[in-house]
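Note to self: the last two entries modelled the partners one at a time, which told us nothing about the interface. This time every component goes in together.
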Amino acid sequence: MFDLKTPYLLFLGHEANPLAIKTSRGIAQWRPDLCIGENGSQLTLDLPKFNPREAAEKGARTFVIGLTNTTGEISKGWIPDILAAIDAGLDIANGLHQRLRDIKEIRVAAERKNVRLHDVRHQFGELPIGTGQKRSGKRMLMVGTDCSVGKMYSALAVEREMKSREFNVDFRATGQTGILIAGEGVPIDAVVSDYIAGAVEHLCPASNDAHWDVIEGQGSLFNPAYAGVSLGLLHGAQADVLVMCHEAGREQIKDKPGYAIPDMQDCIETNLKMARLTNPEARLGAISLNCRLVGADQANRLCHELEEQFSVPCFDPMIHGAGGFIDLLS
Amino acid sequence: MFDLKTPYLLFLGHEANPLAIKTSRGIAQWRPDLCIGENGSQLTLDLPKFNPREAAEKGARTFVIGLTNTTGEISKGWIPDILAAIDAGLDIANGLHQRLRDIKEIRVAAERKNVRLHDVRHQFGELPIGTGQKRSGKRMLMVGTDCSVGKMYSALAVEREMKSREFNVDFRATGQTGILIAGEGVPIDAVVSDYIAGAVEHLCPASNDAHWDVIEGQGSLFNPAYAGVSLGLLHGAQADVLVMCHEAGREQIKDKPGYAIPDMQDCIETNLKMARLTNPEARLGAISLNCRLVGADQANRLCHELEEQFSVPCFDPMIHGAGGFIDLLS
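The predicted structure of the combined assembly is written out below.
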């Protein structure tokens, strides 16, 4: 899929909006060992500030455009930074919709310096049609009441906890930030719709019986724009264990006026019902509750209530970590 | 979307397998007025046999590669026929996965003769993300227990019946054959997965309150490869009325060993449950039962049983037509 060379120099752009550097923040949070420094912006992730040449001298291999925006375009204002990185001999990794290779001066410079351009939302090779055939190994999938509720953070927290206990486990990325963190993955929302389930089968293939794939989820069966992606993921994953991710205090589906966040019980039951088409043994393993909006005080109470109601562990990955859940996982 | 000039000359290829000309057969069956003749093959659709030059003289405007195969490739053996059609001044329409414009001699010939190449699985312009916002007009969607159970035929039979009664109605195509029949549409299985629901919103936009869109369905919520497409379609359609399509006698999901055809009641309830996310008033309007495998004798009995069980009309569009259903539609 990809072959991103590490370590990274994280490019933070030139904007003041901290949301713009969400992708870089995710990488720095979950793979600090891969991040040699940061570049650009008055914002900071508290990494050493290096220009591309300094970073290259320190051993950096890839300049990561860890930025998000609503248009998905590579801002003209970033091009001098990207060219400087190419000039320093760094590969470039880009998770935005627009392709690096479609910008002529970048393409020409990269060819001249013989560095690689990684457009991670566009490179996934030939994908198969889903087969639905049962495969070996264990799989866990993050599902959610909506988009952007913390499915990637939950998956990474679970992976970290499992690794610390010497489980044989891989995080499987399905979105741009996850892919830049893992160095590989399939950007599932960019796949042609006929291949969604097949792409997930390809992403987390048959494995040995003790091995776990912890799969980043996308969207929600209750999001009117993206539910098709979520269902293809659910079917392709053949998950043994679902983790339901929710943001406490969110009442409306993101960017969809008139759409309420689904009832938790309905959302769990619907996900289990659909998951069981390809894995009749699918079960709810935990609830991951993002308590960003309500704070740590309420988090314990809310998690306790959900544990009572659904008889599974409930945790905020950033407050409690996933330890209580992994204690019970066999 | 497209602008296919009619009438058509239907190209039947050179194979003996009648399944290979399924697309042409569909066009000839539903739009005989668009079909000036047929070309190639020992197989026949009982249309006049013309070579491209004769057809052009009779007024044909587009040479339709109405063929299906498992690889989705344009066979090398067809290229002389395609070049002859171009030479006769006909546009070429192709519903296969491989693009005409990727075959150099075809592209060069088309440029020289100034004829258009329509790769209908690849041309749909920029699509929006789904909004889920309620829109005016009435919509009916074909859903199914599986792929290839007769969703397109059902939609076309319903459209024909509604037209004969002077309903204000449009057939909305979502697959290659449907698009060649309608002359427009969106090949939904070729759309990037983030845009499935948005593509359907775009395909059947807000309309006046008396207008019906009758939308061709794809796949099934119970098909492990394609359910994501089906769910995006269901959400984007905001259908007021679902028609459940099933093939009597089919017991296994097509090409998916180990997957049984779902229970009809479960399939109906699951489709209604999911449809009601974007249209809380969605209801089952009818069951369309393809009785090809069981014959006309059993068809009446099976339809009667399903009518009793589900309290909606049940019909085989090729045996009974859709009249009984449309009698009850308001």
